[in-house]
Amino acid sequence: MGIPDAASVVSASQVSSIAELDATLSQCRACPRLVAWREEVARVKRSAYRDWDYWGRPVPGIGPADAALAIIGLAPAAHGGNRTGRMFTGDRSGDVLFAALHAVGLASQPTSVAAGDGLRLYGVRITAPVHCAPPANKPTPAERDTCRSWLAAELQLLRPTLRSMVVLGGFAWQAVLPVLAAAGWVIPRPRPVFGHGARRTLSGPDVPDLDLIGCYHVSQQNTFTGKLTPAMLERVLRSAAESADLPPRQGSGPRR
């Protein structure tokens, strides 16, 4: 298991608001391999985006500071969030996720191409256990553990309003359980096992109940093969919104 970088732990523990967390996190340089990769990608670029000024830094979460529903991904994509500076923005995975969020009334529009495109999330905060784009989309366990203090700080700040959480994929599921425990939710033994649709209600002495829900990741590997369909994703998101008591908004309706 990796040891969290002392500087990142201190910085994360000192923030007092989501806005301050996002600004401080975006300056982190704790993981040399990730720093080198994200900056190389931002310098070399992909030919389709050669006119873009890449973000090339850690990507903070998006969504309101009083979110009732959290969605936990894996890490930013090299030419998605690492390019645009916003989680899931500008890549195929984001295309699927934001279309589903809009369909169930949790996002103002079905697409997200740039940080200034007008997207609004309703009661939802999207974040990840790793905030830098990793080579081959595979952060190491040490990098996950080094980045843990940022997720811990974020969940502490969200704790008063957070009522449900959708976790995208097994990596994120394993990463978030110890963070939830540190924030005050009791993780049952044996620990909940990840699966699409897996669900546990977590409680604690000083925290509101939290519905923890598993969902296959919105990666191209899953969506192109049909392992995760838009209808499957929308059902999970709609159920999570109901658990969070988020009011229904206009959307495209359920898919069959």
UniProtKB/TrEMBL annotation:
* PANTHER family the UniProt entry points to: TYPE-5 URACIL-DNA GLYCOSYLASE
Q: What is the lineage of its organism?
A: Bacteria, Bacillati, Actinomycetota, Actinomycetes, Jatrophihabitantales
Instruction: Specify whether Iron is a keyword of the entry.
Output: yes
Any transmembrane segments, and where?
Answer: 165-187
Write out the entry's keywords from A to Z. Answer: 4Fe-4S, DNA damage, DNA repair, Hydrolase, Iron, Iron-sulfur, Membrane, Metal-binding, Transmembrane, Transmembrane helix
In terms of superkingdom, the source organism counts as Bacteria
Question: Could you tell me which InterPro entries the record lists for this protein?
Answer: UDG_Type-4/5, UdgB-like, Uracil-DNA_glycosylase-like, Uracil-DNA_glycosylase-like_sf
- Which named protein is this? Type-5 uracil-DNA glycosylase
Where is the Uracil-DNA glycosylase-like domain positioned along the sequence? Answer: 60-237
The entry sums up its family as follows:
Belongs to the uracil-DNA glycosylase (UDG) superfamily. Type 5 (UDGb) family.
What is the source species? Jatrophihabitans lederbergiae
